[in-house]
Amino acid sequence: MASDKPTGAQFEQWASLIGTIAAPITVLGALLFYFGYVSSASEYAYFGINVDTIGLSTQSYIMRSPQTLLVPLLVLTLASAGFLVLNAAVRRRITADVTQVPDVADASAIQAQRVRHIKRIVLRSRISGLIALTVGFIMLFAYPYMRDWPVYGLVTPLLIGIGAAIIAYTSHILTFLHRLQGQQKWVTAKDSKSDYEQAGGSLLARRTAGVFVYVMIAASIFWATATIAQWSGRGLAEYAAVHFDALPSVILDTKEQLWLHDPPSIVTVTQLPPSEGQTYHYRYRGLRLLIVGQDRMFLVPAQWSPSDSTLVVPLDGSVRVQFQFENQAP
Q1: Which residues, listed in sequence order, are joined to residue 297 by a DSSP beta bridge?
Q2: 15: three-class secondary structure by DSSP
Q3: With 0-12 CB in 10 A as exposed, 13-18 as middle and 19+ as buried, what is 228?
Q4: Which DSSP letter does residue 294 get?
């Protein structure tokens, strides 16, 4: 059966669908690229390399991001699941306290007392959120004095994000309580209006404040995740430095002597015997392949030492590279 829609309408529908799918994928790809870049920059800075000199592709950065984002994603998933469970329990408790009132003469007074108790708890929670948010902003503006604190980049966004989240959630609970009270026949219009004003004032003001709060939460998550990406990259570099023997072993032949600063007990050099047509005169052993860039290789000694340096080898025929088999019989 042929479709009754005109061809132009079908095209617009498909274009809208493609745009709806492509936009989130583009944002996700940009985020994966960014966190992969941050992690790689921190990792190779440990070896004295600016990551931009390696020439990694966008795909390479994206492929490196999942390992960095694994812990933040697990934490966010568990936190979201815990929040959903807690929110359902809180809403059930509030609903039971407000609606399940004994059928007695002073039922309205009992209900009002319970509502005041709930509001006191919500108010205390909001105050704790304001305190956390205030401390976070103080630390934010005190960056010149606190930037050397190792966990500054994680504690500050967590305080801002958690404080903003508590404030947003308490506002949500007050709004929920107001709606719940409005369904009860013994609540007066004056009480309902008062509760509404306490829940956040005008609709426009509440929506504007909500946008700012959610922007702060999103920015805090982004900042904290970037900090974790930096720590992850540094951790990968330190692990690699301890396990240089796990990297591919390289024999490097050069035309001229390199005069390396690495200890001669780790990187050894021998002079190749002269022969007809021989253009390479020196052979270096004890090197490991750290990473291959766009047109160069980055080599490190087979064992870490304080005087280590990273050797940059161009892939232009000026050197000859051999990769050694692992010293393990099959």
Answers
A1: 292, 313
A2: helix
A3: buried
A4: S
Residue 96 backbone class (left: φ over 0; alpha: ψ -120 to 50; beta: rest): alpha
pTM over 0.85: no
Q: Does residue 245 carry a pLDDT above 60?
A: yes
Distance CA 81, CA 279 (A): 65
Cα distance between residue 48 and residue 290, in whole Å: 12
What is the DSSP-derived secondary structure letter of residue 102? -
For 15-40, write each residue's pLDDT tens digit.
Answer: 555 555 555 677 888 888 999 999 99
For residues 249 and 240, what is the distance between their CA atoms, to the nearest angstrom? 14
| C-alpha closest to that of 266 among 282, 287, 281 | 287
Which of 327, 317, 310 is closest to 50 using CA atoms?
310
Beta strands in the chain (DSSP E): 249-254, 268-271, 282-292, 296-301, 311-314, 319-323
**Secondary structure letter of residue 320 according to DSSP:** E
> How many Cα atoms are found within 13 Å in the side-chain-facing hemisphere of 77?
6
Tens of pLDDT, residue by residue over 179-227, are 877 765 544 444 544 544 544 456 677 778 888 888 999 999 999 999 9
- Alpha-carbon span 244 to 305, nearest angstrom: 11
Alpha-carbon distances of 237 from 52, 72, 195, 222, 240, rounded to whole Å: 17, 19, 56, 23, 5
Termini Cα distance of the chain: 65
95 token code pair: 């609903």
Alpha-carbon torsion 24, 26, 31, 32, what sign?
Answer: positive
| Contact of 53 with 40, CB cutoff 8 Å | no
Helical segments of the chain, H only: 7-45, 58-99, 107-141, 143-146, 152-182, 189-199, 203-242
Distance separating alpha carbons of residues 23 and 215, to the nearest angstrom: 19
Per-residue model confidence as pLDDT tens digits over 98-143: 777 666 666 677 777 888 888 899 999 999 999 999 999 999 999 9
Rounded distance, CA 24 to CA 219, Å? 18
What are the structure tokens assigned to 137, written together? Answer: 């902003």
What does the alpha-carbon distance between residue 63 and residue 69 come to, in Å, rounded to a whole number?
Answer: 11
